[in-house]
Design goal:
- This protein is mainly α and 151 residues long.
- The chain has a domain at 1-74: Glutathione S-transferase Yfyf (Class Pi), Chain A, domain 2.
- 58% of the residues lie in helices and 4% in strands.
- It is built from seven helices and two strands, in the order αααααββαα.
- The chain has helices at residues 2-17, 30-44, 51-58, 60-73, 75-78, 102-124, 144-150; strands at 87-89, 95-97.
- Helix 1 (2-17) runs parallel beside helix 3 and helix 2 crosses helix 4.
């Protein structure tokens, strides 16, 4: 019953759309957004049971409707895969980044962040470096505890 109702709904949507670009003429309305949000996954997703998907694919005007909206509002996702996509399939079928400098850029980002944090710590006085041995004029460096005792 559920499949029959869904098939009937798709058929009615197809009849209502007819040969128009959108449901209410040449510009999209909220109904177009709603209908597209339901049709696009049904059209594009791999489903375990493809009965409803096959029926949708048989309604050419609804397929064109989805393709038109995808290419108009989602050009990077709507049509054929672009040749400028940064991913390529490797021999084992998984996707691999083509950017040969990705690892280097990540490492440089971490190093710059580390240097910035250490620089801030030194400049703000959170960290200080004292030289070993005697200080100027033969004096030993005074530690915080000795400084408190002198006061």
């Amino acid at each position: 019953q559920l499949y029959r109702d869904a098939r009937e709904c798709l058929t009615l949507l197809s009849q209502r759309l007819g040969s128009q670009k959108f449901f209410f003429g040449d510009s999209p309305a909220s109904l177009d957004a709603f209908v597209f949000s339901r049709l696009a996954p049904l059209l594009k997703a791999k489903l375990p049971n493809g009965k409803l998907q096959q029926h949708l694919k048989s309604l050419q005007n609804l397929c064109n409707y989805c393709t038109s909206i995808l290419s108009l509002y989602f050009p990077w996702d709507g049509g054929e895969p672009q040749s400028s996509t940064p991913r390529a399939a490797s021999a084992n079928g998984s996707e691999v980044e083509e950017d040969p400098h990705k690892r280097r850029n990540q490492l440089l980002s971490v190093l710059v962040g580390l240097v910035a944090m250490l620089g801030y710590a030194f400049l703000s006085g959170i960290i200080s470096i004292q030289r070993g041995g005697t200080g100027p004029a033969g004096r030993q460096p005074i530690t915080l505890e000795e400084e408190e005792e002198e006061e």
